[in-house]
Amino acid sequence: MRLRLLGKLKAKKRGLSWQSQLRFLLYLTRNNSSLYEKDFEGPPHESAKYGVFFLTRLWEDKDSPDGLTKFSQARIELAKVLKTEFGSRFHGGVVRNHISERYCSKDLLYSKVSRREFTRTLRESDIAVCTLGIGKSTPWKLGEAIAAAKCIVSESLFFELPMPLEEGVHLRTFRTTEDCLQACEQLFRDPRSMKRMKEQVWGGTINGMLRQNG
């Protein structure tokens, strides 16, 4: 049911304003696993506990020589590079399950966490890294990162959003692992830019618009 509803939203159903569509998405998010608005939403943290947060899952593809979908292979590579380059400033990895245990090195595996633990870690991070899902779908994590007022470094979006996010203002996009690494490094090197992006995400995009419209 949830997937069908999300599909309708992503198709930008006619007759619904973008405010209504976004309220619907937030309704689904807020009613997931008994989480509430306060668990996701909040103004920017000036001193976050974590630097880069990237937590992901893998999907198998029996027709692939490697046994994984292409985007799953890319996710492993991205997690590996972020962990190597940022060390203690990186938090996350690949969620541990029977698939990831088969394809990932142990140091990349991340114990399964509850949704509440995930949102708390997200809110305590400076940068949220997002990758596209199956069929190039827009990740749920993007909406969660917006609600939490994070600096967003996201794989280039394939589907249109009801409200556009401006490159360099509300997020930084990437196409390759190297692009993602550079975007994160640039934000770390420029604390003012990082602070400004968080403020834009909190006050100048979906969060601010919804608050202005009640």
Gross morphology is globular
CATH fold name: Rossmann fold
Q: Could you name the CATH class? A: Alpha Beta
Structural class: alpha/beta
What is the CATH-assigned architecture?
3-Layer(aba) Sandwich
Descriptive overview:
There is one protein chain. This protein has 214 residues and is α/β, with parallel strands linked by helices. 45% of the residues lie in helices and 14% in strands. The chain has a single domain, classed as Rossmann fold (3-Layer(aba) Sandwich). The protein has 10 helices and 6 strands. Strands 3-2-1-4-5-6 form a 6-stranded parallel beta sheet, with helices on both faces. Helix 4 (70-86) links the parallel strand 1 (50-56) and strand 2. The radius of gyration is 17 Å and the shape is globular. The model is unreliable at 1-16 (pLDDT under 50).
State the main characteristics.
14% strand; 214 residues; Rossmann fold; 10 helices
Explain briefly what this protein structure is.
By secondary structure, this protein is an alpha/beta fold. The chain has helices at 2-10, 18-30, 37-40, 70-86, 100-103, 115-123, 140-147, 177-189, 191-203, 206-212, and strands at 50-56, 90-95, 109-110, 125-130, 151-155, 172-174.
List the helices and strands and how they pair.
Layout: H1 2-10, H2 18-30, H3 37-40, E1 50-56, H4 70-86, E2 90-95, H5 100-103, E3 109-110, H6 115-123, E4 125-130, H7 140-147, E5 151-155, E6 172-174, H8 177-189, H9 191-203, H10 206-212
Parallel strand pairs: 1-2, 1-4, 2-3, 4-5, 5-6
